[in-house]
Known about the structure:
Blueprint lengths: L8 E4 L8 E7 L4 E4 L4 E6 L10 E6 L1 E3 L3 E5 L4 E3 L1 E5 L5 E5 L9
Antiparallel strand pairs: 1-2, 1-7, 2-3, 3-6, 4-5, 7-8, 9-10
Amino acid sequence: MDKIRKGDGIIVIAGKDKGKRGTVLVRVDAEHVVVEGVNRAKKHVKPNPVKGVAGGVVDKDMPLHVYNVALYNPMTQKADRVGFKHLEDGTKVRIFKSNGEVVGA
């Protein structure tokens, strides 16, 4: 069970985009995530008329290491660590370490 998943609200805690907030668009692999509007890079794209792609310079969101991001806790308005807990019915859920609330509930 991963601590950061697709669709989670995160805040960047290290790097050039420190302090920015965004939503996880995709998990690239076990250690990298792509966050909406964070770690943008200029990419030069060749035109491809067959696929209908216009050429030019486009902004592209690049992957970030999961160590550089933390889940955003809406209750405390800060970055928070994630833990795991088993509920009474046996399901395993993610919780915020600061207040024990279930993530996404």
